[in-house]
Specification:
- The structure is a single chain.
- This protein has 403 residues and is α+β, with helices and mostly antiparallel strands.
- Helix content is 29%, strand content 22%.
- It folds into three domains: 70 residues, no CATH class; 126 residues, no CATH class; 138 residues, D-amino Acid Aminotransferase, Chain A, domain 1 (2-Layer Sandwich).
- Strand 4 and strand 5 form a beta hairpin.
- Helix 1 runs antiparallel to helix 3 and helix 8 packs across helix 9.
């Protein structure tokens, strides 16, 4: 194991322990039971939603394996998933499925990104890329296809660097005024954290669930560092009908099977927001998770965590009444095949959790994020992943299973 891998495993093991410490008091279980869980690699919170008794625990990917081992599956290419701007550039070949990133707020400046002037190289030096900036590998990752650097300055390469103007708060506010809605994302945040859903309203602005004046909005932006200014993606009529107050997503896991030379989808879910999860659709915040049948696109019963301890089943969305169980995702086959094509075009990333927003009912969609070690609770609350031999073999090949 390399020094880098040892460091990452140590960091993630600490996160594993901190998660248990932070949630310890939320679960009324005996110390004996906790010791049983810990010895087998599970956090206390998993006992509330997984069927772990009678030997069934062996069919689940454990919390330890998820936290400590799965982050290493993609190796050095993890940078394309941990840094949202690099991920954006990686997805440039799939423009129809890519969201627009207008710019980045950095050091009180607004750095334009998706413009006609091709300013990516200007931002490249600013991003840092986890300390890899300047290496040949990172240069090939960051420079969009057809615009590779030849080693000279932007002027020598024939590309005049785009000018970044001062006054980021004002420029972001003007962009919001023009679009009506925006999303501000921390460049490295995950799990729905550090995301601001912004919209204009009469007499001011709304950010997540808070009303702000123009001056208050600019003050918010002034305090941001390394935040991307992204377009707001309008979801499809079906997804909006499920719950209109959040952007609801498909979480689609892809694994690349080197022996077969093809990607496959072991599991996919629809994530839907609720009044408890607003402004996001996260399962851990009270959102719903309904498994999608990979072959047919038909939804199963939706699950929701109640008070972090009990799973509640819903055939319909509890607030909108929209039917979920038994309903087929519109144009699921088109979405599935396109995601598999994207996964196979990025074989350097054998393990990805794609967050997908359908934008119509005919198969169009946007990918708003890629995850390097997707959370398991919203997935394995439906079924244990290791019961699928292809999945077990994949994790074994990548040294994930600690058993």
């Amino acid at each position: 194991m390399t020094i880098r891998e040892t460091y990452i495993r140590g960091l993630k093991f600490r996160q594993f322990l901190e998660t248990e410490a932070d949630t310890y008091d939320s679960y009324d279980i005996s110390l004996r039971r906790r010791l049983w869980l810990w010895r087998r690699g599970f956090l206390s919170r998993s006992d509330a939603i997984y069927d772990l008794d009678d030997g069934h625990h062996r069919a689940y990917l454990t919390d330890f394996e998820r936290f400590v081992r799965t982050p290493l599956i993609n190796g050095e290419w993890n940078v394309t998933l941990t840094n949202k701007l690099i991920f954006h550039w990686m997805m440039e070949r799939f423009d129809a499925q890519q969201t627009t990133v207008y710019g980045m707020v950095r050091n009180d400046r607004y750095l334009p990104i998706d413009t006609d002037q091709g300013p990516q190289r200007q931002v490249m030096a600013a991003v840092g890329a986890d300390g890899l900036t300047g290496s040949d590998t990172t240069e090939s990752m960051l420079a969009p296809e057809g615009r590779r650097s030849n080693g000279g300055t932007p002027e020598q390469n024939g590309d005049a660097p785009a000018k970044s103007q001062p006054g980021a708060p004002r420029q972001v506010r003007e962009r919001l005024d023009a679009d009506g809605r925006l999303v501000l994302k921390w460049i490295k945040g995950g799990g729905g954290n550090n995301v601001y859903i912004c919209s204009t309203i009469d007499g001011g602005y709304r950010v997540n669930d808070e009303r702000l004046t123009g001056e208050e909005f600019e003050t918010l932006v002034e305090g941001l560092q390394e935040y991307l200014v992204c377009e707001f993606v309008d979801q499809s009529p079906f997804f909006s009908a499920v719950y209109p107050d959040t952007t609801n997503t498909l979480r689609i896991i892809t694994m690349f099977d080197e022996t077969a030379g093809a990607a496959f989808i072991p599991i996919a879910i629809l994530r839907a927001g609720t009044d408890r999860s607003v402004p996001v659709d996260n399962f851990s915040e009270g959102g719903l998770s309904a498994e999608v049948d990979i072959e047919t696109g038909k939804l199963g019963t939706a699950l929701q965590l109640r008070n972090q301890t009990d799973l509640v089943e819903h055939d319909e969305h509890p607030l909108t009444g929209t039917q979920l169980a038994g309903v087929t995702i519109p144009a699921w086959t088109e979405i599935r095949e396109k995601i598999l094509a994207i996964a196979e075009a990025n074989q350097q990333l054998p393990y990805v959790g794609w967050d997908v927003v359908p934008t119509d009912d005919e198969g169009s969609f946007k990918i708003i994020e890629g995850n390097r070690y997707p959370g398991m609770r919203s997935l394995q609350s439906h079924r244990p992943l290791l019961a699928d031999e292809r999945v077990r073999s994949f994790y074994e090949r990548h040294d994930v299973l600690d058993r």
